[in-house]
Amino acid sequence: MSTNQSQQVLYAVFENDIQLPVLDITHPLFKASIDEQAYHLNCQKSARSIESLKKMPGFIQNIFVKMSNVDNSFLSGMRTMLYKLGPGLSRGIKMGFRDKWAVKQTSFMGLRIRLRDLCHCQSQILLPLLKQFPERNLCFFNIAGGAATDSLNTLILIQESDPELLNGRKIEINILDIDTYGPNFAKRCMEVLKQPGERFEGLDITLNIIQYDWSQAETLQKMSLERSNWIQLCSSEGGLFEYGSDADIIANLNHFYANSPVDARVTGSLIFEREHVNKGYLGFTEFIGVQIRYLGVEGLQRILTETSWVMEEYHEIDTIYTLFVLKKA
């Protein structure tokens, strides 16, 4: 599909021959779906909106909960990916009324900002390592990765910055997830991106899907050992650090630490502490029944005392999300 911005939209085939766009954060339609001033104003108004909703009749509240599309107290990987596309890239996709409504909501813009900022963060981590070590292969471990949009787009940013850095080395994206729908779509996206004339043509990139329960983190330690001399990045956007228990987070961090190289990094997103999080977001998640953690930076710092990782940097997004980078102590 061509757009009036003269850049093609690539499509990958999903279940039942449904075609969905390959999410590319450098595409003009993705960039146009982010208006940070509008998002900031929406965050300011959201607290008043949720209080008004709570005063409405019960049947209206039930309709609103159903429109929020929460599956088993969390937003599924593929539905999250759909909302990250935004109204421009998702135009033309056959969707139900609830999804059409949600894609257009300013409140979901935060997912796109989170993805964009994390990808830029990850590319800035990897670029100097790739330049310094041209002989080392590159490996992503994406916990609860879903469609792995952060890993794929981090590679896109690196390829745009210096395409030679990806040539001549093996590259792996390992999606560790209990779900299969998102990872299977990621695999279809990779196949499209490797076609002649597309971004990853000629690159030695493999995308692996690993059935993974983050409460049983031994798999991560074994996989890291097998790639111990590779450049390694472990990430979890909207996953482990937003839904996992302290014990699960500690186990995953410690298992990844055991065999990863000294320059390995962990990146991810978490939600502000309950007392500091945007009141509208807090009210919304509790209203629709999302079982999310309000861990915050202080909560993560507390958890890190049980590991050998330290905070290298973090970045806040409008009193809801915090993106962070961990390095070995």
Question: Can you give me a brief rundown of this structure?
Answer:
With 329 residues, the chain is of the alpha/beta class. The chain is built from 13 helices and 9 strands. A hairpin with a 5-residue loop joins β1 and β2.
Structure description:
The N terminus is likely disordered. With 329 residues, the protein is an alpha/beta fold. A hairpin with a 5-residue loop joins strand 1 and strand 2. The radius of gyration is 19 Å and the shape is globular.
- What is the molecular shape? globular
Based on secondary structure, the structural category is alpha/beta
The proportion of residues in beta strands is 15-25%
Spatial order of strands in the largest sheet = 5-4-3-6-7-9-8
Low-confidence parts, pLDDT < 50 over ≥5 residues? 1-5
Main sheet?
Answer: 7 strands, mixed
> Count of helical segments?
13
Distance between the termini: 48 Å
Mean pLDDT: 89
- DSSP E strands, number: 9
Radius of gyration: 19 Å
Helix content: 40-55%
Sequence of secondary-structure elements: EEHHHHHHEHEHEHEHHEHHEE
Topology:
Blueprint: E1 11-13, E2 19-21, H1 28-32, H2 36-54, H3 58-67, H4 77-89, H5 97-103, H6 109-132, E3 138-143, H7 149-161, E4 171-177, H8 181-193, E5 205-211, H9 218-226, E6 231-236, H10 240-243, H11 246-259, E7 265-271, H12 279-288, H13 296-304, E8 309-317, E9 321-328
Parallel strand pairs: 3-4, 3-6, 4-5, 6-7
Antiparallel strand pairs: 1-2, 7-9, 8-9
Helix pairs in contact: 2-12, 4-5, 4-6, 6-7, 9-11
